[in-house]
Amino acid sequence: MAKQYRVAVCGATGAVGNQMIQCLEERDFPIGELRLLASERSRGKTLAYKGSQVPVQVLDENGFKGIDVALFSAGGSTSEKYAPVAAASGAVVVDNSSAWRMDPAVPLVVPEVNPHHIAQYKNKGIIANPNCSTIQMVVVLKPIHDLARIERVVVSTYQAVSGTGQKAIVELQEQMRAWAAGQPLVNKVYPHQIAFNLIPHIDVFRDNGYTKEEMKMVLETQKIMDDPTIKVSATCVRVPVVYGHSEALNIATAKKITPDQVRATLAKAPGVKVVDDPASKLYPMPLDAAGQDLTLAGRIREDISQERGIDMWISADNIRKGAATNAVQIAEVLIRDYL
Ligand code: NAP
Ligand code: 3JN
Question: Where does residue 212 rank: exposed (0-12), middle (13-18), buried (19+ CB within 10 A)?
Answer without folding.
Answer: middle
